[in-house]
Design goal:
Number of strands: 0
Order of helices and strands: HHHHH
Distance between the termini: 23 Å
Radius of gyration: 20 Å
Helix content: over 70%
Largest sheet: none
Length: 122
Amino acid sequence: MALATWQTRSAFQAGGHHHDHHASNLDTKAGLGALAVFAFTLGFVHEEEFQIIAMCAGSGSCLSLMLIYATAVIVALVVLTLLLIQGLSHLSHRIEHAQHALTLVSASILALMGLGFLIGFF
């Protein structure tokens, strides 16, 4: 999500599409630094860390609670990402012909969820 937002910001600024076809003039370190700063800033949107700090304020096990939470989040994200990459590489030849249908299904699910939120179903 952070990568997609970071890549599409130039489309809103310049009015074009989100990538450059002549990448030889790009400064990679500055781009990765900007991406890291954006992802770090985006991490502050999630308030679980602040809730954990509030719960363990004054206790002796606050640091261990934060370390366990951070480790669990990192492991979950890495494992999920690796599983999705492996699954996509394993199934990509099967779903290539149905790619247009998958975008329609995804859009339909998002539209139904949006409608559900608007009418108070969720």
